[in-house]
Every structure is written in C-alpha cells, then in structure tokens.
Amino acid sequence: MINVNIRYKGKELSTILPKCNDELRADLKKAGIDLPAEKLKLRSSAKEQYLVGLYTNNPLDDLIIDRLCNNDNLFELNNLCGILDNIADHDLIFKTILCSDARCINGIKKLFADHFMEFSDKLVLNTHLEEKPATFNVKKCVIEKAIAVTHKNFEHISRFPFMSLAFLERNKDFMYYDDEENMYHCILLYDIDFGDWILIESEGSTYTRYAQYIPQAKYIYEQFLDSHLNEIHLCCPIEIYQHIKDHPKDNCILDNADMAGYADDINTFIRENDLPAEHKRGLKFTYFIHTILRF
C-alpha cells in the first residue's frame, strides 16, 4: 500500500493506492481537486499548483517510489500498483526491480511484460469465455462504419455500455436489423491504441442496445480494407467568371493563377454544402488546363 497526500490550492487529500480508478477519481473530486489523476505528476515542479507526497512502510512499495520519474503520474502509479499487488510472489517482484535499471513506471512494466498487455511479447486478448457452451449462435453483422476512440474513452464505454453516447445518436441510421436478410447492420467502435472493438447495433437508441466485444478486430478490419476496397477520386473542371459590365461572359474567365486566390472561399462553400453521404472534397490544382474540384 502506498499512502498519497496531495495539496492543491489550499486543499488536501489523503488516500491509499492501489484502488479502483473510479474510487480514485471520486476521492479527487470530493477533495475539490479538479485535475484528473492523469495530470497529477508524481515529481511536480515549483510552477505546479499542487504537491504530491508518497510514503509507505512496505519495502516493495518504497522501491517503486524510489524508481519513479518526472513524467510519471498518479493514474499510472495506481494501475501499476493494482496489477503488481495481484502477483503472488512479491519477493520476486522486489528482487526483479532491485536488480534492474528501471527508472520509471513504463520501465517497471517492461520487467513484468506478461502482466501488461502493451509490453507483452505474447498475444493477449480481452474476451469472455463461456463455460461448457452447447453451441455458438451467430448471425451475420454488416459493418457500416468504423469509429476510432482513445484507449481511455474505449475503457469507459466498455465499463458503462448503457450510457447515452452522442456518436450513437449521430450514426443511428447505420444501425438496424434486416428481417429479410436476417442480419444486423452495425458500427464498430475501436480502441485506437490496442485494437479491440465493440460491435454495436443500437436499434435507434443512443446506447448499445445490442453489442459484442471483439478483441483485436482493428487488424481484421484493416486487412479487409487492404484487400477489398479501392479509393476513387472523381474530378470535374470549374470556371470562375469575373463580372465586367458590357463584356461577353467568355471574355471574363479568370486564369488558374487568379482562381487560386479564391481557394479558401470555394472550399468553405464546399464544406457548408456537403451532403451526408459525401466524404472528402476540396479544391485540387493541376499543371495542365483547368483548376478542378475533387469529390
């Protein structure tokens, strides 16, 4: 156990690590500390508005404190302590750290890579195993859209799947069940850092009404894109006419150099008039005859 004392703008917090991350956030909020644990560096400088103090009577925890660096934060320390606390042989942990040159939390994690997915040289999957399954009842799921989120947001959504999510509201038209084809149309939410997915069919709701956790699906999807999809850019020429009174229209066409000066105005107009089904568009320049729009 590591005791933590934090002084912040005249307020103080005393807590003990490791603990559930949600409990740690609640402690900070209760003490009036409006900085998240990820922002609380363990080696704060004089310019910081907070001071973090760590102490313990445990030799292993004392060794961990001694190996911390300036960039380590309270959130990372809590996670490290939580995982190491669940390893049975604490004497082995102590000897391994003591005999190493690890000088930060990530350095300590690498010493026990099998317990930290980001450093493991083995394939680690997050999934759910059923006890003595009689059968696997599966249905076809069409992936209509893939949405990337940070690891932090992905973990939060996976812990609270019934909370209302803005991106589900924006994309609810992509998610439905097709009775005739007997298949789901879904979106995939994926962890941009570790590659796990949550397959979601909200059935018009703003929460994950039907969902399945799929480990490492990011790489499956990327392989699918590489082998099945080709990107096509369609271009069409444009002409800009300068209004000059009593001059024929064909004599008022701007040349490419003059049109380039209106690029920002044109692209702004394009963005403001995008249709929902359209994707990247903008002004493209060529070295030949026309300035053209890319759809």
Radius of gyration: 28 Å
Order of helices and strands: EEHEHHHHEHHEEEEHEHHEE
Range of helix content: 25-40%
- Low-pLDDT stretches are 285-295
- Write down the overall geometry: extended
How much of the sequence lies in strands comes to 15-25%
Largest sheet geometry: 5 strands, mixed
User: Terminal Cα separation, in Å?
Assistant: 59 Å
- Overall pLDDT score: 82
Oligomer classification: single chain
The structure class reads alpha+beta
Helix count from the secondary structure assignment: 10
Write down how many β-strands occur, each being a DSSP E stretch of 2 or more residues.
Answer: 11
Verbal overview:
It is a single chain. The protein has 295 residues and is α+β, with helices and mostly antiparallel strands. The model is unreliable at 285-295 (pLDDT under 50). Strands 4, 5, 6, 7 and 8 form a 5-stranded mixed sheet that branches. Helix 2 runs parallel beside helix 4 (90-98). It has helices at residues 21-30, 59-66, 74-85, 90-98, 105-111, 151-159, 166-170, 217-228, 256-259, 263-272, and strands at residues 2-8, 11-17, 50-55, 140-149, 176-178, 183-191, 197-201, 210-214, 235-237, 282-284, 292-294.
